Amino acid sequence: MRSAKSCSNVFKVLPLALGLACSCAQAQQRPLWELGIGVAGLHLPYYRGSDSERGYLLPFPYIIYRGDFFKVDDEGIQGLLYSSDDLVLDLSLAGGVPVPSDQDGPRQGMPELAPTVEFGPSLEIRLWHEPRRKHRSLWLRLPLRAAYSVDGLDWTHEGWVFAPYLEYYRRPAAASDPEYSVSVGPIFSDDAYHDYFYGVKPVYVTAQRPAHEGRSGYSGSRLTLTASKTLGNLSVAAFLRLDTLKGASFSDSPLLEKHSYHVIGFAVSWILGRSDTLVHSP
């Protein structure tokens, strides 16, 4: 049995918090790095389609680094492989929180699930931008990530996730302007990934919980709204994500409790120091 207790819940929460807190980019010469502190709040289900939810409120380090090949910014943690005005190839990171064993829910008597970490390449294509100042743009982003469950030093490959999406992005035209984005797209995963969250092995079958084996295919779709604003050394950000699982390949799993849900979050951060070295960051 895998235990999630030895692993930190921040595998999901901290990357989200960093993505929220760092989403205050502007097209200009900016410091190579910025450091500060912040607090993030999130409310999300244990896994997509779970009726059990949890809220998180935790401090985090505010970190921005705008290097040529490694970045921590509004897109999270990235290893930049290639970049031009209209094409970017980078490495991206995502994750999931631990899933406890239910006392009286659909996972009653089943083992806990360790938190997951996902990483892989993302090809990003700019389809359109505002002709003059380029503050508004439309991107097609194509991340393909390998997923691993993490139990201490034990990393186990749990499958693959492909989550293409269109994103309309507006960066600030001036320092006092807000930044926001709207993105929408489907998610596809292989049988191993679906089986990790939604599979029921014969040993865990009950009268109310039939056996289920994960199948590759459609994993639902999501709409994400983000907004942020910088007020001097203070940055505030918020996001709302709406997911639908109707028609997903695991829709007949007894562990799927609802076919739509939402995730909300916010972050407030205070910048304590900046690099004297300036770099261009579009």
TrEMBL record:
Residues 1-27 form the signal peptide. This is MipA/OmpV family protein. InterPro entries: MipA. It comes from the Bacteria. PROSITE patterns: PROKAR_LIPOPROTEIN. It comes from Candidatus Tenderia electrophaga. It holds the Pfam family MipA. Keywords: Signal. The lineage of its organism: Bacteria, Pseudomonadati, Pseudomonadota, Gammaproteobacteria, Candidatus Tenderiales. The keyword Signal applies.
